Automatic annotation (TrEMBL):
Catalytic activity, EC: 2.7.13.3
Ranges for domain Histidine kinase: 41-260
Protein location: Cell membrane
Protein's UniProt name: histidine kinase
Enzyme class: transferase
Keywords carried by this UniProt record: ATP-binding, Cell membrane, Kinase, Membrane, Nucleotide-binding, Phosphoprotein, Transferase, Transmembrane, Transmembrane helix
Residues of the HAMP domain: 1-33
Species per Swiss-Prot/TrEMBL record: Corallococcus coralloides (strain ATCC 25202 / DSM 2259 / NBRC 100086 / M2)
Length: 273
């Protein structure tokens, strides 16, 4: 009888091992599939701006100095797109966004961050990256200090500003509006671009999702930027909301708790650094 029981226990154990094995195999398959998808998307998206830069450089080399100067803004935009793509892929792997889904909290390197300086630098980078757009910056009053990972917050602002530029026409205005909302920092990034259909609003921010409107444009993208933005903001106990009117424009709102904000459930950001 004892042997029978031991045998049953053994069977149970084997069942558990086999379940764990199945789960592991599933995860590995999923990981390989998402890595393959990432690689395929990224290599495709690298090709477009790279070949445009090649064509522009060939034209510049054949033409006079004036022609070359006129081509510079296009080359700059394509280079910015490439830079953003590479940064997104690197941040994606740092946050294990694609392989690990939404589980786990990414490791944050927290520092005191001056919101004004953060926004100024992002605005300056936008000027350089999108020379054909106008940028209006409005800062109301004193902004709260943040306890945040500055490298990741830079990704948030660069991605949102870059989308505002990418999905709107050259010559249009992008507005950056920052203010304190209680203890939190609220930043609105508003464009006058193609907009997002209401049925797509809930889906943008899912890795690799791109709207038909954006696919129709010549500018590329992999559909990782907003997913990163959401994940980074979540990790900072902040949030992203999007409002959009197709054909009119989009407003992305970032809310980030400042130092001393009450809504830090686990006290991680409030801990005295
Ligand atoms: P990417 O821009 O690389 O495609 P994102 O994750 O940054 O990826 O954005 C996902 C999708 O959301 C975009 O492909 C586009 O369809 C849509 N989108 C994001 N920002 C805007 C915007 N400001 N205006 C219109 N569509 C946008």
């Amino acid at each position: 009888r004892l042997d029978v029981r031991a045998g049953l226990r053994r069977k149970d154990e084997l069942g558990l091992v086999s379940e764990a094995f199945d789960e592991m195999a599933g995860r590995i398959t999923q990981l390989l599939r998402s890595q393959k998808e990432l690689l395929a998307n990224v290599s495709h998206e690298l090709r477009t701006p790279l070949s445009r830069i090649r064509v522009a450089l060939d034209l510049a080399a054949e033409g006079d100095a004036q022609t070359a100067r006129e081509l510079l803004p296009d080359i700059t935009e394509d280079l910015s797109e490439l830079e953003r793509l590479v940064s997104d892929v690197l941040t994606t792997s740092r946050l294990e966004l694609v392989t690990d889904g939404a589980s786990g909290v990414p490791p944050l390197r927290l520092e005191r961050v001056d919101a004004n300086a953060l926004l100024d630098k992002a605005a300056a980078r936008f000027h350089t990256a999108r020379p054909k757009h106008r940028l209006e910056v409005q800062v109301d009053g004193t902004l709260p200090t943040l306890e945040a990972d500055p490298v990741l917050l830079r990704r948030v602002l660069d991605n949102l500003l870059d989308n505002a530029g990418k999905y709107s026409e050259p010559g249009t205005t992008v507005k950056l509006h920052a203010r304190a909302e209680g203890d939190s920092l609220q930043v609105d990034i508003q464009d006058q671009g193609i907009g997002i259909e209401s049925e797509d609003l809930a889906r943008v921010g899912t890795p690799f999702f791109r709207t038909d409107r954006s696919r129709a444009r010549t500018t590329g993208g992999v559909g990782l930027g907003l997913a990163l933005v959401r994940r980074i903001l979540e990790a900072h106990h902040g949030r992203l909301t999007l409002e959009s009117q197709p054909g009119q424009g989009t407003t992305a709102r970032v809310v980030l708790p400042g130092v001393g904000a009450a809504d830090t459930p686990d006290g991680r950001l409030a801990a005295g650094h």
